[in-house]
Write a structure and sequence with these properties.
The complex is a heterodimer of chains A (about 400) and B (about 110). In chain A, about 25% of the residues lie in helices and about 25% in strands. Chain A has about 400 residues and is of the alpha+beta class. Chain B starts with 14 loop residues before the first helix and ends in a 7-residue tail after the last strand. The chains are: A alpha+beta (about 400), B mainly alpha (about 110). The interface between A and B is large, with 40 and 36 residues.
């Protein structure tokens, strides 16, 4: 075998996508405050961003306010009178006060009588946007009320995931933006998994350090050796690129000597015996795990630029149907990370306890993941390394970086 | 009167330190536990886990009488504490990991 052939085999997944190349990953995008300013304008204010789930605002008038630090704004997502989701900047068109006072990164509430009112001067807005009443309206010299409604934001829903686009004139619809990835992942009953456990933390690192640490399976056998020793035989395969998005599949073949601990066996059997919580490989979209392999762990896509979905369908970690990660830049060196586990609701107390066990293992694995990020960021900031090398199964990182460069123009 | 249902009085010594309604309280207990604390709680719970499942499952989530609720909280504590015995060699922290106290459980205090 020639050296070139060896190299080609070593990059068997990556070489299928010659446009992204096999080069090194530049460090500058991670440690440059100037590039971060470009990311704000050219990336985060241009692309579709996932900001919620329909189940978070189930009833007409329910709202969620989501802070988007990178765009210096916060967005009201509210269930309108027609049942659809409306999105507005959380700002009063009168003097700029926030319409809804926020209590944190995410604020939930309900608009009574389908109106929102600003507590500064009492302007009242319909939940569909138009201003409904202005106290002492006659005292303004002239008012074009048509221009004084809530400032709307482009919003659309895919499979129950709510997305916004902060561009005044988005160049693509959400469906065009997601492209083949949207088709690949559609049809799964995401909406059944209404029971969610969400963790978040602010990490002192660039958002791509956190994103990239979660965008490969290469780290699993080392970083997760303590919490998930059984994942040592992980196979990361079936890579597919859909423009800026990508996906891949994780299988964990049965291996000799896998140790199932007594607690895992006890809680696992509660979930395995439950019709609702057992693995439902039959419910996976057709293109995912097409051979319906029993050792399927999860399908793992990167939704450009900052959202990772893991579709498990009850396989792998029993009971959990899917989990997500999202990475929100706050500054060039500060990131809000959010990780959420989604389950179907428990039907009895033992199922709830078994879910707590799966959730605890998962949270612990995320503590292992986040444990590297601040160290990585600090070390890269030294400037000692200019470029990073990537192996074949790190190609989803490579694809993200390739498209990141196209958006940023570097 | 026992805090626990009939048949589970052996778990009585663990009620004060482990039976909490919230994940936060249970985590604080985990973070301050020794290897021995984990082991005795783990051994006692594992021995009666199957019968504890049967007992709590006689009731619906959210409708458990007080004694059952205490047993249920112990099962939740076991769910969260058992990895420290089975995987972390009795360490109160996940080895080589991020500071657990910086993780915010944004789902609130789901307890039943």
């Amino acid at each position: 075998m020639t050296v070139d052939n060896i190299k080609k085999n070593a990059m068997k997944y990556t070489s299928a996508y010659p446009e992204i190349g096999t080069g090194k990953l530049g460090v500058e995008p991670i440690i440059s405050p100037a590039l971060f300013e470009l990311e704000r304008e050219r990336l985060f204010k241009k692309v579709w961003l996932k900001v919620g789930r329909l189940e978070e605002v189930p009833n007409v008038g329910d709202y969620k306010v989501k802070k988007i630090d990178v765009a210096h704004t916060s967005i009201i997502l509210i269930r309108g009178k027609d049942g659809g989701i409306n999105a507005f900047h959380n700002i009063c068109p009168h003097r700029g006060n926030k319409i809804i006072s926020e209590t944190g990164n995410e604020t939930f509430g309900h608009a009574r009588a389908n109106v929102l009112s600003c507590r500064f001067h009492g302007w009242v807005f319909d939940t569909d946007g138009p201003v409904r009443s202005i106290p002492r309206e006659e005292a303004f010299s002239s008012l074009d009320k048509k221009c004084l409604g809530l400032r709307s934001v482009h919003c659309d829903v895919w499979e129950g995931f709510i997305f916004i686009n902060l561009d005044e004139n988005p160049t693509q619809s959400l469906s065009e933006y997601l492209g083949g990835l949207g088709d690949h992942f559609s049809g799964y009953p995401y909406g059944d998994s209404t029971c969610s456990y969400r963790y978040s933390t602010v990490l002192n690192c660039n958002w791509k350090v956190a994103l990239y640490a979660f965008t490969e399976g290469y780290h699993v056998s080392t970083i997760h050796a303590a919490t998930f020793p059984s994942l040592a035989t992980l196979q990361h395969t079936d890579f597919k690129l859909f423009g800026p998005h990508s996906t891949s599949t994780l299988y964990v073949p049965p291996a000799e000597g896998i140790v199932t601990t007594p607690a895992t066996a006890a809680f696992g059997s509660v979930l395995q015996q439950s019709e609702r919580h057992r693995p439902h490989l039959d419910q996976l979209p057709k293109g995912i795990n097409p051979d319906r392999r029993e050792d399927f762990q999860f399908e793992f896509p990167s939704v450009f630029p900052n959202f990772l979905l893991h579709l498990g369908a009850g396989a792998g970690y029993p009971g959990m149907t899917y989990f997500t990660h999202q990475f929100w830049p706050i500054a060039w060196n500060k990131t809000l990370w959010e990780g959420t586990n989604y389950f179907r609701p428990p039907t009895k107390p033992s199922e709830r306890a078994a879910m707590a066990h799966v959730n605890a293992l998962h949270r612990n694995a995320w503590l292992e993941d986040t444990g590297t990020m601040e160290d990585t960021h600090e070390a890269l900031t030294s400037g000692v390394l200019k470029e990073l090398v990537l192996m074949d199964e790190e190609l989803m990182i490579r694809n993200t970086d390739y498209h990141w460069r196209r958006y940023i123009g570097v | 009167m026992s805090a626990l249902p009939t048949g589970f009085t052996k778990l009585e010594p663990f009620v004060r330190d482990w039976a909490f309604a919230t994940e936060k309280k249970r985590s604080e207990k985990r973070w301050s536990s020794t290897k021995e604390d984990f082991q005795v709680f783990y051994d006692a719970m594992l021995e009666c886990l199957t019968s504890a499942f049967e007992e709590i499952d006689k009731y619906e989530i959210g409708k458990m009488p007080e004694q059952i609720k205490i047993l249920y909280y112990l099962v939740l504590a076991f769910a969260e504490a058992s990895p420290h015995v089975e995987l972390y060699k009795g360490d109160s922290k996940v080895p080589y990991s991020f500071d657990a106290e910086r993780f915010v459980a944004s789902h609130g205090d789901i307890s039943d």
